[in-house]
Amino acid sequence: MQPKIGLALGGGGARGLAHIGVLRVFEREHIPIFQITGTSIGSLIGGLYASYKSADRVEAYIKGLVADPIFNELEMKVFDSAAGSGVIHQLDQYINSIKMYYSLLKTLKTKSIYNKKLVKQLFKTYPDQNIENLPIPFVAIATDLLSGREIVITEGSLKLAVMASSAIPGIFPPVKIEDLLLIDGAATDSIPVQIVKGRGAKYVVAVDVSHCVEEAGELETGLQIINRAEDIVTYHLTQERLAGADLVIKPKVRHYTWAAVKHMDELIKSGETAAEQSLPQLKHILEHKQRSK
Known about the structure:
By secondary structure, the protein is α/β, with parallel strands linked by helices. It has helices spanning 18-28, 41-52, 55-67, 69-72, 87-105, 116-122, 158-165, 193-198, 222-242, 264-291, and strands spanning 5-9, 35-39, 138-144, 150-153, 175-177, 180-184, 203-207, 247-249. Helix 1 (18-28) runs antiparallel to helix 3, helix 1 (18-28) packs across helix 10 and helix 2 packs antiparallel against helix 7 (158-165).
């Protein structure tokens, strides 16, 4: 009997591209995946893999998405404060800061920086299957704005579920499904370990791509302080969730921002490296638990 390994893929924006690298190693090593549960970017990548069963196809899809002119309209670099030096870099950062604050001002009158039409165009080629018909069992985690509850989406449109799970508050608009108004699942469950356990997985492997909290960065504005406080809350929530995992894979991506899409290749490679380093521990866990039956 094959071991029932469930993957809990956490949220973290662009850092979650590391999930692709982790999935590639599992695929290459013929490690069977019993189910995938994803939050935010974890649901976007997990849903693709549950549909394609190929890390290469997932990567090709993401690269195609980033190359799409529609994606360029997001101007993700505005939200990516990657380190650099020199006058040109400082000027670029200054201009990006102005653009970012202007974008955020839009949310005083609208529900999000980007509108529903743009998001719909972004997801136009995302697999539009029913979750219950996917080759690999899959679940997406979202948060209901109205009740404040964590919502576990187990059926219906995969595309709609992923759009809801990855709807970053203020950045992307909430997604309405029946009587629910859904946003990013990370608001209630940054890494869904317990959901994976509850759905029958014998062994839970969590992939943590949360942001680094050891380095505070600049704290000169109210917005920077709000973002810092959110990082701290998410970090502590994530640590609590991770306590139930049999193995936690932590790609070295914590210093990247949620918008660091331009570092895609590095992020994916970090996932591969972390998964490869975790293989001996994973095999030991599986062998030990099989013997202890």
